Amino acid sequence: MTDLLYSEEEEALRAAVRDLLTDHCPPAGVLARTESDAPHGRALWKSLAEDMGLAGLLVPEEQGGQGASHREAAVVLEELGRAVAPVPYLTSAVVATEALLACGDGELLSRLASGRTIGALAVGLHTGPATGVETVRLENGTLHGELTGIADAAVADVLLVPADDGGLYAVAADAVTVLPRISLDLTRPLATVRLAGAPGRRVGDTEPAVRRALRAAAGLLASEQLGVADWALAETVRYLKERKQFNRPVGGFQALKHRLARLWLEVVHLRAAARAAADALSTGQDTDVTVAVAQAYAAPVAVRATEEALQLHGGIGMTWEHPVHLYLKRAKADSIAYGTAGAHREALSALVDLQAP
Amino acid sequence: MTDARELRGRTREFLAQHPPASTDRLDFLRARFDAGLAWVHYPEGLGGLGAPRSLQGVVDAELAAAGAPDNDPRRIGIGLGMAAPTILAYGTEEQKRRFLRPLWTGEEVWCQLFSEPGAGSDLAALGTRAVREGDTWVVNGQKVWTSSAHLARWAILIARTDPDVPKHQGITYFVCDMTDPGVEVRPLRQITGEAEFNEVFLTGVRIPDSRRLGAVGDGWRVAQTTLNNERVAIGGMAQPREGGMIGPVAKTWRERPELRTHDLHQRLLTLWVEAEVARFTGERLRQQLAAGQPGPEGAGMKLAFARLNQEISGLEVELRGEEGLLYDDWTLRRPEHVDFTGRDAGYRYLRSKGNSIEGGTSEVLLNIVAERVLGLPAEPRTDKDVAWKDLAR
Fold first, then answer.
1. Of all helices (H) and strands (E), which one includes residue B282?
2. Which chain A residues in 224-243 lie under 8 Å from chain B, judged by CB atoms?
3. Tens digits of residue pLDDT in B194-207
4. Residues B141-155 pLDDT 10s
5. Which residues cross the membrane (chain A) (predicted)?
6. What's CA A279's distance to the chain center, in Å?
7. Which of B93, B230, B318, B322 is catalytic?
8. In sequence order, which residues have a C-beta less than 8 Å from that of residue A308 and are 6 or more positions away?
């Protein structure tokens, strides 16, 4: 049976990442950054990816990585979610890396693993593992077209671009135009990528690479959503113990206690679902079903947790200065990222033979 | 005596001396108790060897492989899960020796006389009175929701012995002989049509003081041992995918395409996902316990299963359409144990309504999670320092 616990090594990794984020990624800093021209935490990325070597967790040691598994990457994502950290970990160290692992491109893979190069798969963030992808035209050896909804493209050094010949092409970021969009999630901004005769190097076939990348993304996103939900619950409980109204701590009112207890229960379930997905990705056992289950469950829980956090914080929850909105926006964007809960349920209906009428 | 290898050897030796095929069932169970292989974590002489509880699995596996008879824990679940640990913790030597062996072998069935019509979730408000007359207590009152009372030889009973102190302080814990004069058991018919439970009327029942468990007035504390052990018993086994309530409805969906609608499809998929996640959660809890890291997650499992069972069985009745308007059998029955997943969809729907009430209502469990797990302030108590006799009832 699936190992659903955290190992000692995983807990040590969590502690190290959390320490770093506590020191270098406070909510006020994240908020200030989103209001600047550079929403990504470049210095934070350098510490995580280069100094701690986390960008290479999924990459084998012989290709310059850590040779760890999705279980460790999931723990990192839990902590990044808990801090709503504005770093391209999911997009570069998971999605682009998984695509390259499918293609077997060792050179680019080791550059991504080092953290010094940031990669982005040029597929819209809303795309699920079972959905078709937009492509650009390959004409006379160069790439032409426009791709929308590309997460973290603004900081990417290399884009992995699907072309109409079925190939996946590595394209240098300075060969394309990246047009930042105003995004719902300020900490994982989207951009449109325009290619006008951009040179690209074919690294492999799009279909298997994208499928593998998006499946890992959907499965591990559940761990990020767990981190987001866990923060929302913990922060709300803390606030409701302090906040007094009607001469009592607000957290003593049964109507609110029951809502928090239900939320706690959902977070407990989400933890099991996210662990199951991370373990299934690492072992290759029953992966499609487990990932679809985790993602069908995770998104509504993370959204509800942040919505409850906002409501239960009262007026302060509606302000720009309180960080709860950063989490709400992340949770809501995550509910669309890599396939909606509905899309994953749809996938399950075929996988577990519960067919539509 | 803590080694798995040694215990395996001991079990095999026992099996050699008492071959299951040629040994009478009761003789075998009694001998197993006397050999300390009944519950290895109990003390020697009381069915155990003082070994770690986790080693019971070693014994059970050896015995199962040899085709040994079991003591039917479903019928004697209340004795095993609730009475035994309480007797072990609070009983006198004499009580332990008298009660534990026939309890474990199933020769004597136990029931639990706790809940009352006026004291459900607020159990400590109970009003059944026990008045001392020399070495005897005279008990009058009414209990309810007593499973196995019609089969039971003994009952664990809590009764009020001092109405002049606050409610938690005036309770005493007894062992009641169900064959005594004044004990009347009446079946309590439920919405399913069957009577799993009973009402028990206690009229001038005389209980000798030697059958008191724990000190006079200390019954609430003793009852906590019983109730904590009841909660530990929930959710112990690994389950396969579709192992619970979701199984029958998924099967119906696959076999009866003519019943499918788009609305039901969406609800079924959502519940299938929730059932699978609940299964992972139960498995994760099991792994935590096995690794010696019990988390607070157990507190929530019953809440989750109650809601899921109700939603899934409700969906199933709808899915069956015209058949959903029918019911399998309204005849009054007295099952020896509860079978949540047996019988028809309509039965499952009605029976699962009890899942959020029995063994602690969902509302009370949510309070427990909020207060003990999340550390939120307790409900204001207006009954705390008031004598029981002055409480509004």
1. helix B262-290
2. 237, 240-241
3. 999 999 999 999 99
4. 999 999 899 999 999
5. none
6. 17
7. B230
8. A232, A236, A259, A260, A263
